[in-house]
């Protein structure tokens, strides 16, 4: 699996799309720091970009890589190699290469600007960790969709629909549910509903760390009471980890049963 991971990683790192992805974050960091001239404000602005863009890129790259490397995958399947090693290696190669582009692309301008000497370093670190988690999660979900759909058009369609649902539609349904049942105690419902969506969970964690949870109103107070504690931080981190482990498990399970 390590050999396949290395091949997938280096294959993507040589791809022009990886350079484009890296260059985009590099330029984004430079422009934000030039315009804001304040590390804390730049981190807040970056949050809105990363929360939406990173899942989209992870989803598209995951599906695209699976379909484009299908012939090579079939060649590997003819060898005495475990199926789980092939697909988990490819998944990790894609996810790690995207994560590296994100970390280095944003890290370089902030390092040159003096992030290590600033109090915003912990907020920036959380931002990068959250972005890495989202990359791992949505790349795994994309591989699952591709494994379950032989048709490339259907696979891309379902992948984009999944991202659209978790990034936009889920929030609308969640908000309407809170309004519809506003007469009832919704503390537990709000917490569970947030943890069932990795994008919302990541957004809340960053907002609380940036100490701007007042923007969330009453819900922000509930989140602060739970996620602001050490126990809440452990639970939320465990949930993000589960969002990585469960799709990875389904990749392994589907790969073993799929008739290629």
Structural account:
This protein has 260 residues and is mainly alpha-helical. The chain has one domain. Helices cover 84% and strands 0% of the residues. The chain has helices at residues 2-13, 16-36, 39-68, 70-77, 83-113, 121-148, 152-180, 187-195, 198-209, 217-227, 230-257. Helix 3 runs antiparallel to helix 9 (198-209). The mean pLDDT is 84.
The termini sit apart by 19 Å
User: Which word captures the global form?
Assistant: globular
Radius of gyration: 19 Å
- How many extended strands? 0
Instruction: Describe the sheet with the most strands.
Output: none
Which stretches are poorly predicted, pLDDT < 50 over at least 5 residues? none
What fraction, in percent, of the residue positions are helical?
over 70%
Q: pLDDT average, as an integer?
A: 84
Domain count: the total is 1
Helical run tally: 11
- Portion of residues in beta strands equals under 5%
Succession of helices and strands:
HHHHHHHHHHH
Main structural class: mainly alpha
Offer a quick outline of the entry.
The longest helix has 31 residues, at 83-113.
Output the keywords.
260 residues; mainly alpha; 11 helices
List the helices and strands and how they pair.
Blueprint: H1 2-13, H2 16-36, H3 39-68, H4 70-77, H5 83-113, H6 121-148, H7 152-180, H8 187-195, H9 198-209, H10 217-227, H11 230-257
